[in-house]
Amino acid sequence: MQTNARFGCHQQIVTIDDIFFSYENKPVISGLNFSILERDFVGLVGSNGAGKTTLLKMIVGLLKPVRGEIRLFGQPIDQFRDWERVGYVPQKNALNPLFPATVREVVTSGLFGKKNMFRRLSKQERSKADDALYAMRIEDLADRRIGQLSGGQQQRVFLARALINNPELLILDEPTVGIDAETQAGFFRMIRHMHQHHHITFIMVTHDMDMIQSYLGEDSVQKSGGLSFYVKHTHEPENCRETDLTHSMQQLRETIEV
Ligand SMILES: Nc1ncnc2c1ncn2[C@@H]1O[C@H](COP(=O)(O)OP(=O)(O)OP(=O)(O)O)[C@@H](O)[C@H]1O
User: Which residue range forms the structural domain that includes residue 173?
Assistant: First the structure.
């Protein structure tokens, strides 16, 4: 386990300290330790039922470990309030296809967090939504019902929802399940671009070992608590410079082929 709060210029974004989790009496995660540094790309791999989604839900505060501690950006998770720094794209089957919201409504819901969803949007919030729709090339779908879209289109809607706050940490749970190979390849190109050029820290659950091997490298694996973490660090000194974390929406848009 890495216990130092920083490595070079990179602070710990997620610190998982000896956590345990059970659903009722069924243990799922036992003694898991792991740290994620600023601008890492972490591929989270494990067999079905190993607890990957459960871990992500703990990292975004939806579940609480029964023992141990998780810190986000150095703060214990129960004191953490800066949720706009974290974008989360849950597993695709988390969406009820009958959910009546439009694409624009789903994307803007990313602004609210635990705040009131029914207030009027400010001009600035509407413009953030327009930027995220534009970046994901879904502005023409803005008024369509989310349940009527293809899997690849829905995936871009949920990514736009996660990007609307310009997050520093992006958490993706099996984002390419049920999507054709070509769309998947385009998606990974976009994710790599975001990692390399927008300096976002990523945690992505995937069963796609080709993606893991090509981008993260087979040898980058660390194991803990029954899960495998493939990690690509970006610790080169030039990455220690302060960078403008604002997304260039135009640049991002250009990585997407539709
Ligand atoms: N709400 C729940 N109540 C009880 N058990 C649950 C609940 N959610 C998940 N589980 C069980 O906990 C275990 C871990 O589930 P989890 O979804 O975290 O696994 P996973 O590694 O993401 O699996 P997969 O690769 O299939 O998505 C599984 O055995 C699952 O059946």
Answer: 6-95+169-254
Classify residue 132: in a domain, yes or no.
no
Pocket test for ligand 1, best of 20, 24, 28, 30 (most atoms within 8 A of CB): 28
What are the 10-residue block averages of pLDDT along the chain, 258 residues in total? 53 94 94 93 94 96 96 95 91 70 90 66 86 91 91 88 91 87 84 85 92 85 92 70 57 70
pTM for the predicted model, two decimal places: 0.88
ipTM above 0.90, yes or no: yes
**Widest CA span of the chain, in angstroms?**
50
Residue type, 227: L
Decide: 53 in ligand 1 pocket, CB within 6 A: yes
Q: What is the Cα–Cα distance from 218 to 158, expressed in whole angstroms? A: 29
Tell me if residue 194 falls in helix, strand or coil. Answer: helix
Measured in Å, residue 46 CA sits from the centre of ligand 1 at: 12
Residue 159 lies in a domain: no
**Is 151 near ligand 1, meaning CB less than 6 Å away?**
no
Verify whether ligand 1 is closer than 6 Å to residue 28 (CB atom).
yes
Would 115 be classed as within a structural domain? no
Are the CB atoms for 175 and 160 separated by under 8 Å?
A: no
Helix spans in 110-199 (H) = 123-135, 151-163, 181-197
Radius of gyration of the CA atoms of the chain, in A: 18
Atom of ligand 1 nearest to the CA of 47: 25
Q: Is 142 helix (H, G, I), strand (E, B) or coil?
A: coil
